[in-house]
Automatic annotation (TrEMBL):
Pfam families, sorted: NB-ARC (PF00931)
Record organism: Cardamine amara subsp. amara
Top-level division of the source organism's lineage: Eukaryota
Protein name as it appears in the record: Disease resistance protein RML1B
NB-ARC domain residues: 78-235
Taxonomic lineage of the native organism: Eukaryota, Viridiplantae, Streptophyta, Embryophyta, Tracheophyta
PANTHER family: ADP-RIBOSYL CYCLASE_CYCLIC ADP-RIBOSE HYDROLASE, LEUCINE-RICH REPEAT-CONTAINING PROTEIN
Length: 348
């Protein structure tokens, strides 16, 4: 290597290392443990690596483009005068987090500060609203070693610090009212033009906290489920003729839940569906129809267990006594333990 080339290489390394020195580092003293710190670092690196790719390939995820269009119209990004708080609700496994991540990657760079926070996971680490508030401030502003006296002080600190810059925040998987009230109780906490996204299974929680704009995520319809199934299993290759009906049955095993559909699709892909005969595929689909895959059972179970005790009781009564009855008929029934509001929670 001659001197000019060597000097150029040294110059590039000097420039790169100088740039690195200005980056915010992870401090092990602010994390619960090393595993959590590594997980956070890996997640952030992954987000950086795939942000541009994700923007360019939103259309590759079946139905995602329509979700982005629907949410963009609600967010009104061109409006700089007001704060928007948007809820995203839907049952477990329906794709709320994936949609929120896509929206975050698409919009967050337009804001002075931004963060994506898995509220349920962070809260569960210590069952502490105070810790959740401290972690939120660390994530969005990089404030290390912050110690708050109590949750009220935490709310005041968030309000004071975020009233002076436009932020984009995703509070993912909120499952308790106090979590939302402690992090984003009111639009007055934030600088004009800020956007706050909340994902939750509990639409009633959003209503209780005064979130008026809610985007409800529904299961995939049969057409989109089949499209997604073929997209994963055949990876863009046209499937063999004569399998459309069987593939339709296979795609319906997940009942329109994207997460379960992905698992089923991967299962068929690993099984070697492309090399199987029509008869073998028929047998495999029939077996899955008789005995659902554990994933779908787990998703439905988690959606049930997250309900309040009263709603679970109502659900069991309705499932056992009114199975197959029209919703309007069930709403008219006067049950000892609740009203149409409880039944409404079950429907949601």
């Amino acid at each position: 290597m001659n001197h000019p080339e060597k000097n150029q290489k040294v110059s590039k390394w000097r420039e790169a290392l100088t740039g690195v020195s200005y980056l915010n580092a992870y401090d092990s003293n602010t994390c619960v443990d090393e595993a959590t710190m590594v997980k956070e670092a890996v997640g952030e690196i992954s987000d950086e690596l795939f942000t541009e790719h994700f923007r360019d390939h939103v259309g590759d995820i079946v139905g995602m483009r329509s979700h982005m269009e629907g949410l963009s119209s609600l967010l009104e990004m061109e409006s700089e005068e007001e704060v928007k708080i948007i809820g995203i609700s839907g049952m477990g496994g329906v794709g709320k987090t994936t949609i929120a991540k896509c929206l975050y990657r698409q919009c967050s760079r337009q804001f002075e500060a931004h963060c994506f926070l898995n509220v349920k996971e962070i809260f569960r680490q210590r069952e502490s609203l105070l810790y959740l508030q401290e972690y939120f401030l660390f994530k969005i502003l990089g404030i290390e070693h912050i110690k708050l006296a109590n949750a009220e002080a935490g709310s005041n600190e968030i309000k004071t610090r975020l009233q002076h810059q436009k932020v984009f925040v995703v509070l993912d998987d909120v499952d308790q009212t106090k979590q939302l009230q402690g992090l984003a109780k009111d639009t007055s906490w934030f600088f004009p033009g800020s956007r706050i996204i909340i994902t939750t299974r509990d639409k009633g929680l959003l209503q209780e906290c005064g979130v008026e704009t809610v985007y409800t995520v529904k299961c995939l319809d049969k057409e989109h489920a089949l499209q997604r199934f073929k997209q994963i299993v055949f990876e863009g290759i046209p499937p063999p003729d004569g399998l459309e009906q069987l593939l339709g049955r296979a795609s319906q095993l997940a009942y329109g839940l994207p997460s379960a559909l992905t698992d089923y699709s991967q299962l068929f892909l690993d099984w070697g569906i492309r090399t199987k005969t029509k008869e073998e595929l028929e047998e495999a689909v029939r077996k899955f129809e008789e005995v659902p895959q554990e994933t779908i059972v787990d998703i439905l179970k988690s959606s049930y267990t997250c309900l309040s005790r009263m709603v679970r009781i109502a659900f069991l009564h309705i499932a056992c006594l009114f199975n197959g009855d029209p919703i309007l008929s069930v709403l008219k029934v006067k049950l000892d333990f609740g009203s149409s509001l409880i039944i409404g929670s079950i429907i949601q």
